[in-house]
Write a structure and sequence with these properties.
Radius of gyration: 35 Å
Order of helices and strands: HHHHHHHEHEEHHEHEHHHHHH
Shape: rod-shaped
Structural class: mainly alpha
Mean pLDDT: 86
Number of strands: 5
Helix content: 55-70%
Largest sheet: 5 strands, mixed
Strand content: 5-15%
Low-confidence stretches: 230-245
Oligomer: single chain
Length: about 400
């Protein structure tokens, strides 16, 4: 815009407004302070006044013909960036910014008695200046919001790495992590880690079943921390004869069961409880390993997958145990081996030969004969609890060897 395109009434009105700029700014600030977001903000009065004074001055001068587009654009973007850091909501900021048109229009009309109607041709010019200012403020706000988000993610990642690397028992770190990650400072906690195939919908899936879960991401791994509620720990379940410690233990069991049931239908690995933030790293590692065993529609829990986990962690030790135990078993025909393993696994799952027979649609004596045959060729008796645990490891190791 140049002097030739500015009407004479607008020029006179602008000069008058610039003379009364402090008064106009004061009235403007009084209105801004009534807006939601500015009422609650901690922005100093002199900050709001100074910003408005500079903004209105630049816009009046640009309307008067000065080439200040670049200066106003830079100033407007700086306002947007600054208000992000000061916690002003974008909606409140834009409402305040759009008030500029009304104040500029009213100020010009008040200073042109009898000539106000001659400003109608300048409405578009005033609107364009205000809209350019608004657009730049919003642009700066969004740029700074992205920067703040990136900084928060960096802070989260830093704290998560320290918290989850293990061996760090730093109370100050725990306070910082709890605040930044928005998790309670006091446990218990459970960790759920997404299987890689379920990562995309993990956060929404978890929040749908456990709204209070805190969903996080670290190095491309999606996981959630679920804190036990005080209500669950003091529910009174199983309190008879247990005293306060019995109530707390029963409540912890109840909370853990609620977490596991809530996540049961998701393709995730679910940890045992972590009593403190210091032990969260161990549960995160456990859930990460379990996540690999999760399948669509079914979470992986330690109770079902501990043999596979032990096989992975002990490696050659369990492989050697399996080789020794299954040496004679391996020479049996594959069809017979399959029948024996099936009988052993169903029996260990039910704890009853009769129930196993019902599940396998055969006679109870058939089940007992197969159990006896398995014991004779492996030296491990499925009806003996200690042997049953070893059998689980041996069969998990054998399956792992076949799949690798």
């Amino acid at each position: 815009m140049n002097d030739a395109s500015v009407s004479a009434p607008l020029q006179r009105g602008i000069r008058s407004c610039l003379d009364d700029l402090d008064e106009i700014t004061t009235l403007y600030v009084m209105q801004v302070r009534t807006l939601t977001g500015y009422v609650e903000s901690v922005i100093a009065e002199r900050d709001v006044h100074s910003t408005a004074f500079t903004t209105l001055g630049l816009m009046f001068r640009q309307l008067g013909g000065e080439r200040l587009e670049d200066e106003l654009r830079a100033h407007s973007r700086a306002i947007g960036r600054k208000r992000v850091r000061q916690g002003v909501p974008l909606e409140s900021l834009l409402r305040a910014v759009r008030m500029d048109f009304r104040f500029i229009w009213q100020a010009l009309n008040d200073r042109l008695p009898g000539e106000a109607d001659r400003l109608s041709d300048d409405v578009v010019a005033i609107w364009e200046v205000v809209e350019a200012h608004t657009t730049s403020v919003q642009s700066g706000y969004m740029l700074e919001l992205g920067q703040v988000k990136a900084e928060l993610e960096q802070e989260q990642a830093f704290l998560l790495r320290r918290l989850l690397r293990g061996g760090v028992d730093d109370s100050q770190l725990h306070v910082q992590a709890a605040e930044a990650l928005e998790i309670p400072l006091v446990g218990p906690y459970w960790v759920a880690v997404a299987h890689q195939d379920a990562a995309a919908s993990f956060a929404s899936d978890v929040r749908a079943v456990l709204p209070a879960a805190v969903c996080l991401r670290l190095d491309g791994v999606e996981f959630a921390v679920v804190a036990g509620s005080s209500g669950a720990r003091s529910s009174g379940v199983g309190s008879a004869g247990g005293g306060s410690s019995g109530v707390e233990s029963a409540g912890l069991w109840s909370a853990g069961l609620s977490v596991q049931l809530g996540l049961a239908g998701l393709q995730v690995g679910v940890s045992q409880s972590a009593a403190t933030l210091s032990s969260l790293s161990e549960m995160w590692q456990l859930a990460s390993e379990l996540a690999e065993f999760a399948v669509p529609g079914r979470a992986a829990l330690l109770a079902q997958h501990w043999p596979s986990l032990v096989v992975r962690r002990l490696g050659p030790v369990v492989s050697s145990l399996a080789a020794d135990s299954l040496r004679d078993f391996a020479v049996l025909p594959s069809s017979e081996r399959a029948l024996l393993v099936e009988a052993v696994e169903v029996y260990m799952a039910t704890g009853s030969a009769s129930k196993a027979a019902g599940a396998l649609f055969c006679h109870r004596n058939t089940v007992m004969n197969r159990l006896a045959k398995f014991a004779s060729v492996t030296g491990l008796d499925p009806t003996v609890p200690d042997d049953a645990a070893t059998i689980k490891l041996v069969l998990a190791a054998e399956r792992s060897a076949r799949q690798s």
